Amino acid sequence: MHPIIARNIFHLQENLLGRPSFKILAELLNSETQSQEHIRQLQLKRLQQTIRSAYIHSPYWYDLMKSEQILPASITSLDDLKRFPLLTKETIRDQREKMVWKSGGKRIQLVRTSGSTNEALEFYTSSTREAHINAARMRGHQWLGVRRGEKELYYWGAPIELNKQDRIKRVRDWLINDGLTNGFEVTSERLKGYYEQWLAWKPKCMFGYPSTLVLTVTMAESLGLDLKRLSQCGLEVIVTTSEMLSDVDRQLISAGFGVPVYDSYGLREAGLIGHECEHGTMHCMDEQVILETIDPVTLKPTDGEGELVVTNLVSPAFPIIRYRTGDIVTLSNSSCPCGRNLSSIKISGGRAVEFVVTKAGKWVVGYSFIYIARSVKGIVKFQVIQQKLGEVRVKVVVDHCFPADGIEQVKTQVSKRLGGDDLVVVDIVDDIQPAKSGKYRPVISNVAEALYQDRNFEV
Ligand SMILES: [Zn+2]
Questions:
Q1: Measured over all CA atoms, what is the biggest interatomic distance in the chain, rounded to whole angstroms?
Q2: What backbone torsions phi and psi does residue 234 show, to the nearest 5 degrees?
Q3: Range with the lowest mean pLDDT among 160-164, 190-194, 292-296, 381-385?
Q4: CA of residue 272 to ligand 1 center, whole Å
Q5: DSSP structure class, residue 435
Q6: What distance in Å separates the CA atoms of residue 247 and residue 260, rounded to the nearest whole number?
Q7: Are 209 and 241 within 8 A, CB to CB?
Q8: Domain locations in the chain as residue ranges
Q9: Residue 168 has pLDDT above 80, yes or no
Q10: Angle, vertex CA 281, rays to CA 157 and CA 245, nearest 5
Q11: Do 276 and 262 touch, CB atoms closer than 8 A?
Q12: Per CATH, which fold does 355-453 belong to?
């Protein structure tokens, strides 16, 4: 599809869904070059609107502000935000129905996420909120020279069996120049097929998880596939998402494909938070979020380095005020050669996601299990552990919503995902402890680790 036609079709789709994404994109491209003071004024105005609306329409926020003696009119500076207590995942989980303003926008719907950890979380989104996220994502890609409508390949999860809706989505993706390759299950055999498809489709941008891209580069090398040929066919840039991108992985992916690699950072429940510009600075989406850092132990505010706390400024239907992310970051206001006056963020601490390897030699990416945890009700936390080839153990922490046949459901879905006769054992446990770093590891596989060390992908 011609990029301009694809862009217009995407525009039309956004309008039909009540999402003014292109209008917001134009505003973002304007505000990013305004002075820092101008951007702070915009943040304050949006913060005041968010707090006023939360007070009027959301019983949870009304009760909280009453008990904390915060009146919306008393919020006169960005510092006043610190009068609010911190918001946790647990509170969202318990108070969700009291937090939502169901007539606060179009297409308000419940979505489920596991985000950067493997704790499931349900929250509400709306057309407005999605439009802001889409616009912010479009802006980030535009910084790297990719405009909506140009061919972008999404290298990540895909449903195992396509239902009618999935098939419609495939056609829509084709119309708007979005390609999809299943990055959840990579085998040597499949990679050969993907490689041919990519060479034929000629994407300009590839979008995926660092872990899958690293595996792809290493596997391609052992198969003798030259990924650099993609750059001769039009591939210009790779954008990563969802996991920590280490410098080593960035170099490895970039050397493998022969194009620069840029990172983006977001949390489904808090919005798109940062996107790298062409100079490699991860700029914050200052027009949409207010970011702070705290000491994760004392919970006191810190000066730019610590656990990230996010306030979303563009989600009136489901206000997120001072949300603890669990991610350790450094925030900065120093200027960037690109000339954009947005602040910047550096993420430290792992968000690594690993693989499980099946007897048939399939490398199944950890994110695919997160999708399973999302689809079964009542799963609060989960972890997949593989200690030997042919056996996968799934630990789940559940609440009262977990169905009577929940264990069977998880087992069936995991088996389907693995796609062979590997043994799957599901255990309900009281809790799952985070790793020493303080982060949850959704997948721990000694098998994949050992094979990877030996660069042995055939099992
Ligand atoms: Zn920059």
A1: 66
A2: 115, -10
A3: 160-164
A4: 16
A5: P
A6: 12
A7: yes
A8: 1-346, 355-453
A9: no
A10: 35
A11: yes
A12: GMP Synthetase; Chain A, domain 3 (3.30.300)
Residue 160 has pLDDT above 70, yes or no: no
Nearest residue to 92 (alpha-carbon basis) of 396, 319, 287:
319
Predicted pLDDT of residue 116: 46
Report the SS3 class of residue 371.
helix
Going from the Cα of 344 to the center of ligand 1, the distance in angstroms, rounded, reads: 8
DSSP string, 311-326: EESS-TTS---SEEEE
CA–CA distance, 154 with 166 (Å, rounded to integer): 15
Are 207 and 213 in contact, with CB atoms under 8 Å apart? no
Q: Is the pLDDT of residue 159 over 60?
A: no
pTM: 0.78
Distance 262 CA to ligand 1 centre (A): 12
User: Measuring CA to CA, how many Å separate 182 from each of 114, 148, 216, 416, 417?
Assistant: 19, 22, 12, 15, 12
The pLDDT of 413-430, averaged and rounded, is 92
Q: How many angstroms is it from 275 CA to the middle of ligand 1?
A: 9
Residue 300 CA to ligand 1 center (angstroms) comes to 30
Gap between the Cα atoms of 372 and 368, Å rounded: 7
Spatial CB neighbours of 159, under 8 Å, sequence gap ≥ 6: 166
Structural fold of domain 1-346: Rossmann fold (3.40.50)
Amino acid (1-letter code) at residue 92: I
Phi first, then psi, for residue 299 (nearest 5°) are 65, 10
The DSSP line for 199-252 is: HHH--SEEEE-HHHHHHHHHHHHHHT--TTHHHHTT--EEEE-SS---HHHHHH
Rounded distance between C-alpha atoms, residue 296 and residue 327, angstroms? 10
Give distance in angstroms: CA of 68 to centre of ligand 1.
39
DSSP annotation of 340: -
Average pLDDT, the chain: 88
Query: What is the distance in A from the centroid of ligand 1 to the CA of 332?
Result: 12
Contact 309, 323 (CB under 8 A): yes
Distance, first Cα to last Cα, the chain? 40
Distance between Cα 26 and ligand 1 center (Å): 18
Q: What Cα–Cα distance (Å) separates residue 315 from each residue in 69, 123, 191, 285?
A: 23, 11, 40, 14
